[in-house]
Amino acid sequence: MYTQNLAEPQSSMIIREARPTEAPALTEIAFAAKRYWGYSDAAMAQWTRTLTVSARSIARNPTWVAADATDRSLGFCMVWTDGRAWELEHLWVAPASIRRGIGKALLSTALQFARARGADSLRIDADPNAEGFYLACGARRIGMVAGPIPEDSNRMRPILVIDLGSPNQDAGTNPGLPSSTT
Fold first, then answer.
1. Are residues 145 and 159 in contact, defined by beta-carbon separation less than 8 angstroms?
2. Residue 98 CB partners (closer than 8 Å, separation 6+)
3. What is the pLDDT of residue 150?
4. CB 112 within 8 A of CB 81
5. 109, 105, 83, 111: which is closest to 93 by C-alpha?
6. Are the C-beta atoms of residues 119 and 166 closer than 8 Å to each other?
7. Average predicted confidence (pLDDT) for the chain
8. For residues 179 and 62, what is the distance between their CA atoms, to the nearest angstrom?
9. Is 123 helix (H, G, I), strand (E, B) or coil?
10. Is the whole-model pTM more than 0.90?
11. Architecture of the domain spanning 3-173
12. What is the secondary structure of 18-80 as a DSSP string?
């Protein structure tokens, strides 16, 4: 479990496995986080399926929640793997908790989990607004794909990868990420 002090000294955060019963709450976080970037209702509607988290997807894919001391969900992430390729399926932080280290802590958890299971990289199909975050965390862009939305037919999404190295490599090799879990 990863524990990190937040802005308020009395607050702390834990990273724990998500429970399938939390699917509706995690879906709310995903929608709120996406809406944070000012997307139109029409754009949000086209993402309904991809932003909706199911109990089944939580049960089938490694999923973690960042929670405060009262177990209120602040954000979550989910990874997908077929045993060879690893992909960040979700990483969302509730808008009120953005820029408090929660995204980095969740990403670090996913990277450590994947590396411990032999992954050499984690692929990320990112929202353009999140690219800077991932680049600061050690990702590199490997391509772009079309991601049109009603208000921008030319919108492109960056495809990123974070190289993990060998499973025995020090966890601190990704800039901007915590080097240990305490």
1. yes
2. 33, 36
3. 95
4. no
5. 105
6. no
7. 88
8. 21
9. strand
10. no
11. 3-Layer(aba) Sandwich (3.40)
12. --GGGHHHHHHHHHHHHHTTT--HHHHHHTHHHH---HHHHHHS-EEEEE-TT--EEEEEEEE
